Amino acid sequence: MADQQALTTSDVLMRALYMLLFAVIWSVAEMALAAVAVIQLVLCLLTRETNLRLRVFGAALSRYIYQIAQFLTFTSENKPFPFGDWPSP
User: Fold this and answer.
1) 78 part of a folded domain
2) Once rounded to an integer, what is the mean pLDDT over residues 58-86?
3) C-alpha to C-alpha distance for 25 and 16, rounded to whole angstroms
4) pLDDT score of 2
5) How many domains does the chain have?
6) What is the per-residue pLDDT for 1?
7) Is position 3 within any domain?
8) Is 14 part of a structural domain of the chain?
């Protein structure tokens, strides 16, 4: 891209540290998303309706995972939460 500046070695190393941190956070978020899905399924089987709070949290969590994926693939330079705002559902 023409608008990107040449990165220094320290910039690349700092980005690598952030990427490592967000890869770990991704794993935790992935487990949380799976837990939300299972809990929603169980609640739906028991009550025949879903939990609104879990739906809202699941929507925000899936957007958060998407933001991490964008950062990890260099699609975005914006650092996700906790260095940025938590995504709105």
Assistant:
1) yes
2) 94
3) 14
4) 44
5) 1
6) 43
7) no
8) no
Sign of the alpha-carbon torsion through 58, 61, 66, 69: negative
Residue by residue, DSSP assigns the chain as: -TTPPPPPHHHHHHHHHHHHHHHHHHHHHHHHHHHHHHHHHHHHHHHSS--HHHHHHHHHHHHHHHHHHHHHTTS-----TTSSPPPP-
Q: Is residue 59 a contact partner of residue 50, using CB atoms and an 8 Å limit?
A: no
Is the residue at 56 inside a domain?
yes
Q: Residue 84: which of 40, 66, 35 has the closest Cα?
A: 66
Q: Which domain holds residue 56?
A: 22-89
Q: CA dihedral defined by 19, 38, 57, 59, rounded to 10 degrees?
A: 70
Query: What does the block give as tokens for 15?
Result: 């980005």
- Could you tell me which of 25, 27, 85 has the C-alpha nearest to residue 60? 85
